[in-house]
Amino acid sequence: MKRKFCWDHGDIFYKSMEVYSKSHHLTPAEEEKLLSPDMNLGDKLLYEAFNNSWWKQPEVKDPDFWEEVKHFQRINQLQAEKCRVALRSGKKTYSYTIEASKWSPAIQLTYDRCDLLTMNKYPLMKKLSQYALGYKYYIYQVYHYLTARVSNLF
């Protein structure tokens, strides 16, 4: 997808997040039932469609593609390490450059970028929805702030 959308590696950095809480573990029987086609037909159909189309992509047969995948895994790990350093330092002026490669230009890591990349899922979801709603959300917040202030006057 990176190549199809003309993204660079900095656009696709990620942080793994847990889907289930650590306090609840599925038994093997619960897991088998959850993954069965009867319970999860939609997911099964989506997986099969994406899996079939994935292996038909010509890039997958190119050894350079798999070198790029390995390179991305390394720099994604480097990004995670450098972001931990940045956030522990607390320095808003933090900056680190991941060198350019044949697959991607140099990537600048800043404190703000690291903060966004390492954010927990609920604050991240809030920030993404604010970004998606953009200016309308800002106006909505200003409106509610002002109406609350005005209603306190009376």
UniProtKB/TrEMBL annotation:
Predominantly, its location class is: Golgi
For membrane topology, the record states: Single-pass type II membrane protein
GO biological processes: glycolipid biosynthetic process
**What does UniProt give as GO cellular component?**
Golgi membrane
Alphabetical UniProt keywords = Glycoprotein, Golgi apparatus, Membrane, Signal-anchor, Transferase, Transmembrane, Transmembrane helix
Location in or out of the cell: Golgi apparatus membrane
Extract the GO molecular function terms from the UniProt entry. galactosylceramide sulfotransferase activity
Q: Which InterPro entries match?
A: Gal-3-0_sulfotransfrase (IPR009729)
The protein depicted here goes by the name GAL3ST1
**Could you tell me which species this protein originates from?**
Bugula neritina
Taxonomic placement? Eukaryota, Metazoa, Spiralia, Lophotrochozoa, Bryozoa
